[in-house]
Amino acid sequence: MTDTKIFHHYQLTRPLGGDWLGAMHVATDLDEGREVALRVLDETTSGQSFLLMQLERLLLRVSTLKHAHLLPTGELQTRAGRAFYAMDLGRAGSARALLQAQAKEARPLPLVTAVELVRQAAAGLAHAHAHGLMHGNLKPENLILQPGRALLGQTGYVTQLSDFGLAELRAGSYGTHDRAVVNALAYMSPEQCRGVRNELRTDLYALGLVLYELLTGLVPFDIRDAADALEKHQHVAPRQPSALRPEMPEALEEVILTCLAKDPEDRYPDAAALEGALQGILNGLMPGGPEPTVRLSALPFLPPPPPLDGVTPGADLNLLIFSERHELLRTLPVTDATLTVGRAHSNSVVLEHAGVSRHHLNVTFQAGQASVTELTATNGAVMDGLPLTPMTPLRWPERTPLYLRPYWLVLVPPRRAPTRARIVVTPDVDRLTLTPGRPAQLHLNLANTGVTVDHFRLSLDGIPEDWVLDAHQEVQLNPGMQGSATLTVQAPRDSRARAGTYDVTVVARSRENPEETGRAPLKVVVTPFHETVATLLPPTRRTWRHTTYTLKLENKGNTDLILAPQLRDNEGEVHVLPRLQDLVQLPQAPNAAGHVVNPEQLAREAARQAAMEARNQATSAARRILMGQGRIRVTDMPARVTLAAGARSEDTIKVRVPLRWFGSPSQHTLQVNVQPVNDQNEIEDRVVTSAEGQLHHLPLIPLWLLPILILLLGVLIWWLTRPPQITQFDLSGSDTVVAPGQPFTLRWDTSNARNVSILELGGTGQNLTGDGQLKVDGIQKDQKYTLVARSLLGRRVERSQVVQARFERPVIEQFDVTPARVSGNQPVTVTWRVKNAAQVSISELGNVNASGTRKFIPNKDTTFTLTAKNGSERESDQRTVSVLGPEVKEFKLTPPRVKKGESAVLSWNVVNATQVSIDGLGTVAATGKRTVTPRDEGNATYVITATGAGGLTKSANIRLELVTPKPEFTGFEVTPNPVDSDQQFKISWKTKNATGVSVQYGEGTEESGPSGETIKQAPLLSTTITLTARNDAGDQVSVSKQLNVNLIDQTAKAAAEAAKQAQQAEKAAQEQENTNVGKVSFTAEPQTITGEGDVTLNWQADGFAEVSIKPLIGNRPNGRFDPTGTKRIEKVNTTRTYTLVLYLRNNKQKTIERTVKVVPLPVKINAFTLSQTQLSAPGTVTLTWDVANAPSVRIAGLKGPLANGQWPARGSTPVPVGATRTFTLTAGNQVQRQTVKVTLPPPAVQSFTLNPTQITGKGVVVLSWKVQNAAAVRIDGVKGPNRDGSWPAQGQTPVPVSATRTFVLRAGTAKATQTVTVTAAPTPQITGFTANPSVLTGPGAVTLSWTAQNTSAVRLTGPAGMIGTTHPASGRASVQVMKTGTYTVTAGGQSRKVTVTVKPAPQTNPAVTPPTGGTATPQVQSEGTRITNFRASRSAINAGESVTFNWFTINAKVVRIEGVPGDLPPRGEVTITPSQTQTYTLTADDVVYKTPITVRVRDTGGANYSDLSGTWTHPFGVVTMTVTGKSGTGTFSSNRPGVPGVTIELVFNGDTVTATSQKNPDFSFVASLRSGRKAMLGTYTLKGEQERWCMYRPGTPRPAECK
């Protein structure tokens, strides 16, 4: 490769990197004009012929795998010593480039994008694996990306896998199978680390690693080198991906971890199963939409496309949609450059059918040409009888039907307006005469009336293209210029150039725009010419009686002809008879007298002439027979032959010659002259062609044949008088010996014999044929047979044959006894085969068949004798077998020395034995192993005895020695050392050959097993720890270690550590929060609205758990929103400011405001009235108003149902009026007022009470009052709910008091008073507090009991802090005490303490037991209840399925799970079947687990909500529901002014209920069922305004979120 940018037919654009094979470039294929990825192998690699051969085979195999998710790869080529191949270019890069881009943006890849990328890769792998091709080195660089359709607003890609098999090829070129040498270390599989090859599930492991990295941005293992890779891939579990990305679905995490299983058997069985699992995940991530596409059954044949003959083009490009019955359903004009077809309503063309996918086709238009792409639809699409390839653009020609079952789609181009001709062509003549075979010149004048330079191609339409000798010549003309050109025209001199006049069009066609032409008419006259050929076939005939000729006529001219063939006879020897049809079909031409000849009369005349000819022949019959003289007769000669130009005809002419008996051959010449017939049907007196043939007349007997006939007569006489001969007489077969009684066959062969017989056979042997054979019955003695042959004239010949009767001698073909040497009880195989034997016997076996095989077990040396007899013939043979004695080949103990209690393996191998026994073990097999353990303190001896055939025996013995090794320590550790005085330390040890260990710590000694560990509380001073090991023999060994103790101030240490950790956590959290705040985006579109419109809010606040958008209420139970989302607010008609609230640390908030300005229409108050303007007493009036162009209005003093107390623009409301009052309606800048005048009597206080009237300490009193003739009252010192601080005329209110107080009620001039007396409260006193027991021996439970007075609750604290929250004034509590501590009860300012002492448990010597691998470590319990684990087997189930919860707690007495009845054990599992989506919370004692578990129940169509029927309470009314299945009806009642009561329709989906009203479209509510199905939380909407809302069953506590 040179330094230029051109390599072969590629132009290199930019480098793409390189690898071990060579460099990669982006290149342009100059032949095809497309961009490709070109890999050019370096010079070293290009010189390895074996590698190139392997690479070429690999690329050829990859190129045959046609799949949408496999990268198309070209074949290997070599130019100038450099090898290279091309691949499709990844227009969207690779998965590695995508990961790098996401890392720069510090944003993870969307879940749906990552899952879809790997799902497509799994589909490609499944196709490759199905064809036996494994990748072997998958990594993100091999996932090549092409642009694809978007998913959920995210950029979409099409994944294509590349570089199949290159890793294996590289390993072969390196001469190694070590994957660590050639593979990417981070993406190796465990089996590759072990050197396993050709495991297809290796690719699934690598694909799981890629999916892990796409979702988390990290690989599961930090790989430093090859050794690190081998260790972690095989033995280290991957980090949980959900820990790095919490929002990851549990099912997706399960898919990843299944792929990353260490054992291939634990992964998915194949790539297709992985693809199916990822498709299920993808379906769960996609939002709810249309029902899934139905896979249609296969059609036996494709239905016919619709006919397009009646379809006329329109003004625009149209898309026609036909049904399968060819009904035109829709005509859609195509105006956009791209349109999509599918079932989803977001498509440009929506086809509502279950078999159509939601996104089925994508059609693009570029330069007037349509391309269609099938978007991996369920049922695909078909064009021109072939299915479309998914995700591959294909040209869609106009008016070509495309079948998208059950629709036909056709693109019809628009009408093309005729263009004004800008090319003028004029010939010099109007008529051009052509003589066939001669060229003629046609001169043309041209003019270019256009505005551009053009080249014009000249042609003649109307005559064959090859007549123009210089066809398609071009003439260049500038704009406005004229020119001339000459065409040479020549009609060929053959029948194709028919004579006549042709209408021809002279065409001048633009080369730049072939549709633009210039035309001129021209007449072309072709002159006639004649050429006729006649042939008489065959040229020569020889006959003695009859023969035929074929007359072949051919018209090679360019006009039609009528020909008359005539047979010329100058010698008068030929008589010609015409065909009868020629006589009938002769034209009725008038005779000389002008009369028309009658054809019937002419036929009678011909018959008369034929009769006369017959009489003439009869008179000369004798002369013709004897001499062979007469005329030659010719029949079936055609009279007229009509031939079109270029046509030919063939007629058969029959010839008969007179019969001649003797003589020599004579020769005659037959000449046929062909004359034309003119237009008057007259034969012209000229010959246009002729044909000639030779006829040779042969006699029956030529003169030269007479001598030969005389010679043959003499031979015949000799043949008839010759004597007979016997050439053969014997048995069938060369042998003349047969077995007695066995039939045999005699055969003979004679010549010149008319009669053959065998004398000895009597009648059977008479009148036999000259050649033959005869079967004779068997004979018992020798017999002579005589064959007699007689000729035609009676001459006789004899021959004799003697047949002998003999028995055949037996033949022993095989006799084997194997093996020749055997041991006892081992069988031998006797095999024999004997021929010609009537009886066969074998000693030891008796009589046997002529051949066979037998088994025989000899117990001594044996000789087998085979005897074969056939009559008097006899044959025998012998074989001898030797039997071997027993032999002990092996008898040993492993090991030969063992310790007491240990075992050894006794193994033996004995041959040639019928029985084997071992002392103590009994009879055993000839070969085997046994584990033996000595039962006493001494050595053990084992004796083996083998018995063989004939009673032979053989013995051997062996001794097992017992040894007792001395004990020794193999490990002794004290950790930590040194140890802080407030900590614990661990003593661990391991010994060898020891039965027990004594642990000496301080003054005491603890006995333990030979290996183990123990945990001790550190003493205050340093000490020595001594361990002594002993065995059963009494041997002992001791080891010691010094324990250094640091005296620690625990309080100071804990405080410093906590402060440090808190400071670090605070700093990291603050930095992360500042980063997250900088990335927050919040937009409101549009920013300006005229009148009324919809507003869309978009926000993204990564790193925050939730956000608020004021004044909106979010979808979460607390009214907040997800950190990322979109919200559409409909019918916004006032300027609004939306505030995004970010909840920062330390209870701080950050706000981002976006204002949508609404330019209002002019506000107009159409009406504002009062039902009454005069009242004589307090009462109720109704305000009615109607305001245009305002979303809401304000009424001074009246709080409306809308936000900020406003009212709808149109409505009415009752208002209680107690005094003269003016109502002011404000809408925008418009104001109207209405006044109601009330004449009131003087107020009167009917009642004013106080309850209670006396309180001890402090408390709450309830004031109640009722006043007549007053709109409001005042209570001194107590502010009321009205704006001026007054109270309604009737009501009650609680008031806290802590001292004696007098309340004064004032209503105008009337007033009333009430006094409450407060006395001082007694001081709380603790009358008792005990602990039982107060002294424990070791950790245990203690019951605390207490009594207190003058208080309602007390608090308990212990060494670990507060115990619970509060407790009643008297009661008891059980606590778990681990060490000595003090417990305190507090009531008000009083407290009392009690101390519980925990003494160490007494030391006991445990029984010494045989070692089991270690001693159990005593469990150290910590104070307080802890929950270490709470998990569910599945987070999402279908209705009717079960889920299992498992949990683990420490120090818990009572465990409960909200939603699961009953108390549960501290650890365990429980399986339930939820009926709906529900959240479960685990509580252990008073401790609540930090993370509740929500189990989502999918609705599979069988959900039942009938239990929700009935009455529900909401904050301002009641809801009644009647539910059937997943829908229902009901009523919504309200006691709030301005909120109407309506009938509602209910729809249930999962745990969500939606209510709407047909009578009031502005009303709706959406609520979610709470756990237990006793409450619902959601939003209530009326006239575009939303409010947080709830409802609950009567008798059920009102939810805390329901405010």
TrEMBL record:
Looking up Gene3D superfamilies in the UniProt record yields: 2.60.200.20, Immunoglobulins, Phosphorylase Kinase, domain 1, Transferase(Phosphotransferase) domain 1
The residues covered by the FHA domain are: 339-388
MF terms in GO: ATP binding; protein serine/threonine kinase activity
Alphabetically sorted, this entry's keywords are:
ATP-binding, Kinase, Nucleotide-binding, Transferase
Keyword flag ATP-binding:
yes
InterPro entries found in the cross-reference section: FHA_dom (IPR000253), Ig-like_fold (IPR013783), Kinase-like_dom_sf (IPR011009), Prot_kinase_dom (IPR000719), SMAD_FHA_dom_sf (IPR008984)
Q: Where is this region: Disordered?
A: 1063-1085, 1401-1422
Q: List, as start-end ranges, the regions of compositional bias called Polar residues.
A: 1074-1085
Query: Which regions are flagged for Low complexity bias?
Result: 1063-1073, 1406-1421
SMART domains named among the record's database cross-references? FHA
**Which residues are in the Protein kinase domain?**
10-282
Asked if the Swiss-Prot or TrEMBL record annotates the protein with the keyword Nucleus, the reply is: no
Q: What is this protein called?
A: Protein kinase
